[in-house]
C-alpha cells in the first residue's frame, strides 16, 4: 500500500486529493494546524477513527514554520508521495501580512523539501505552484513564460517554485511544480471571489443578503473545476521522470462575466446587487491570467471538462442547497453529463455542501 503525505489537507484541494488517494488505495497522512475550533469540515465525511484496524486516513498536528517537526513527521511516516498544498493562499491577505506569507508559503516549502532530503527517503514531491507567479506577463502563459509576480503571495510561490527545481537538480529528487490556474468548487473558502459571489447569489435569492461588495471586475482569470486539477496532481507523480506543468482551461473571463453568469443563472440582475468597494482592490493588480496547458494535454493526457459557466452553475446550486433552498438543478446534471458515475466520487452537490469549509484555505 502506497503512503501519501498531504499538507493543506483541510483545504479545498487537499480534501479532494485525499478522496482521490483513498479511492486509489493509498494510506493518507494529512498535516493539520492546531486551532481552538475544529477546522476539518471539508474532510469530516472521510474521517476514520485511527483505532479502526482498517483506517487509511491519519491526521497529524504540525506547522510549516517548524522544520524539526516536519523532519520528524516525514521520517516517521516515510511517505512514497508528498503533496505540498499548505500555504497562506489568499492574495489580498498576503499584502496585509507579507512577512508571515514568506515564512509559510515560501520557507515552508524549503523546510519540507529539506525534511525529505535529510530523512533519506525517496518520496516523490509535488509543489502547489500558482498562476499568480506570472503576474503581469502577457497571456497566455505556459511553462516557458517568465514570472512577473505582483503580490507577496506570488513572490513567495516563485521562491518555492525555484527551491523545488533546485532540490530536483541538486539532489536528484523527484520534485515537480504544478502551476495551477484558478480552480474552484463548492468547497472553496468564502473569502475567495468565486465562492463569495455564488454564496451571495444564494443568500440574495433567499433574502438573507441585499448587497455584494467586490473589487476589480475587469481582471481576467482562468477558472476550472478543482476535482479535475487534483487528478492532474496525482498524474504528475506517476510519470517516469519529473517535469513541471501548467494547468488551466485556456479561457479567462473577467470577474464581471463570472459574476454576471452566477447571478443570471439564479434569475437575478447582478447590477441591482453588486457594488464596488475600493478596499477590495489590490495594491498591484494582475490583469489577465490564461493558461496554455498544451504540455499537460500531451504528457498527462489531461484536459479540463468543466467551463467557467458550468462551474458557476455547480457552485450556485450548491450554495442554494446549503441554505435550504431548492437548487435550480443544472449543477448536478452537469457533473453527471461530464463525468458519469465519477461525479459520485466528487460526491455530487449535496455531499459537497456537507463538507464545505468556511473561511480561508
Which features does this protein show?
two-stranded parallel ribbon, Rossmann fold, alpha/beta, 13% strand, 7-stranded parallel β-sheet, disordered C terminus, UDP-galactose 4-epimerase, domain 1, single chain
Number of strands: 11
The succession of helices and strands, N to C, reads EHEEHEHHEHEEHEEHEHEHHHHH
CATH structural fold name of the largest domain: Rossmann fold
Question: How does CATH name the architecture of the largest domain?
Answer: 3-Layer(aba) Sandwich
Question: What is the gyration radius calculated from CA atoms?
Answer: 20 Å
Overall CATH class of the largest domain = Alpha Beta
In total, how many domains does the architecture comprise?
Answer: 2
Spatial order of the strands forming the largest sheet: 3-2-1-4-5-6-10
DSSP strand content:
5-15%
- The residue-averaged pLDDT reads 92
Terminus-to-terminus distance: 29 Å
- Overall outline: globular
Any overview of this molecule?
- α2 runs parallel beside α4, α8 crosses α10 and α10 packs across α13.
- This protein has 2 domains: 205 residues, NAD(P)-binding Rossmann-like Domain (Rossmann fold), CATH 3.40.50.720; 115 residues, UDP-galactose 4-epimerase, domain 1.
- With 361 residues, the chain is an alpha/beta fold.
- The strands form 3 sheets. Strands 3-2-1-4-5-6-10 form a 7-stranded parallel β-sheet, with helices on both faces. A two-stranded parallel sheet has the order 7-9.
- α1 links the parallel β1 and β2.
- Helix content is 41%, strand content 13%.
Amino acid at each position: 500500500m502506497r503512503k501519501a503525505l498531504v499538507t493543506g489537507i483541510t483545504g479545498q484541494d487537499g480534501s479532494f486529493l485525499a478522496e482521490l488517494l483513498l479511492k486509489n488505495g493509498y494510506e493518507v497522512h494529512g498535516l493539520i494546524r492546531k486551532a481552538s475550533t475544529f477546522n476539518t469540515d471539508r474532510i469530516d465525511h472521510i474521517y476514520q477513527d485511527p483505532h479502526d484496524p482498517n483506517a487509511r486516513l491519519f491526521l497529524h498536528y504540525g506547522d510549516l514554520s517548524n522544520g524539526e517537526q516536519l523532519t520528524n513527521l516525514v521520517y516517521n511516516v516515510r511517505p512514497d508521495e508528498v503533496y505540498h498544498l499548505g500555504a497562506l493562499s489568499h492574495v489580498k491577505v498576503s499584502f496585509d501580512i507579507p512577512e508571515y506569507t514568506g515564512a509559510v508559503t515560501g520557507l515552508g516549502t524549503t523546510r519540507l523539501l529539506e525534511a525529505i532530503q535529510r530523512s533519506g527517503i525517496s518520496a516523490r514531491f509535488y509543489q502547489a505552484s500558482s498562476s499568480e507567479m506570472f503576474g503581469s506577463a502577457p497571456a497566455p502563459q505556459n511553462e516557458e513564460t517568465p514570472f512577473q509576480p505582483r503580490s507577496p503571495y506570488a513572490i513567495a510561490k516563485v521562491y518555492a517554485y525555484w527551491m523545488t527545481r533546485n532540490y530536483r537538480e541538486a539532489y536528484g529528487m523527484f520534485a515537480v511544480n504544478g502551476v495551477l490556474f484558478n480552480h474552484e468548487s463548492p468547497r472553496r473558502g468564502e473569502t475567495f471571489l468565486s465562492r463569495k459571489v455564488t454564496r451571495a447569489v444564494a443568500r440574495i435569492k433567499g433574502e438573507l443578503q441585499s448587497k455584494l461588495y467586490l473589487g476589480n471586475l475587469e481582471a481576467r482569470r482562468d477558472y476550472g473545476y478543482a476535482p479535475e486539477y487534483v487528478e492532474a496532481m496525482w498524474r504528475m507523480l506517476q510519470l517516469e521522470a519529473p517535469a513541471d506543468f501548467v494547468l488551466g482551461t485556456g479561457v479567462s473571463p473577467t470577474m464581471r462575466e463570472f459574476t454576471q453568469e452566477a447571478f443570471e443563472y439564479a434569475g437575478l440582475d447582478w447590477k441591482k446587487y453588486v457594488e464596488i468597494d475600493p478596499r477590495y482592490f489590490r495594491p498591484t493588480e494582475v490583469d489577465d491570467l490564461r493558461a496554455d496547458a498544451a504540455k499537460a494535454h500531451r504528457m498527462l493526457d489531461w484536459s479540463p471538462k468543466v467551463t467557467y459557466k458550468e462551474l458557476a452553475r455547480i457552485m450556485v446550486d450548491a450554495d442554494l442547497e446549503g441554505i435550504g433552498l431548492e437548487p435550480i438543478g443544472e449543477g448536478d446534471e452537469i457533473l453527471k453529463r461530464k463525468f458519469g458515475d465519477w461525479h459520485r466520487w466528487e460526491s455530487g452537490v449535496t455531499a459537497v455542501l456537507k463538507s464545505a469549509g468556511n473561511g480561508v484555505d
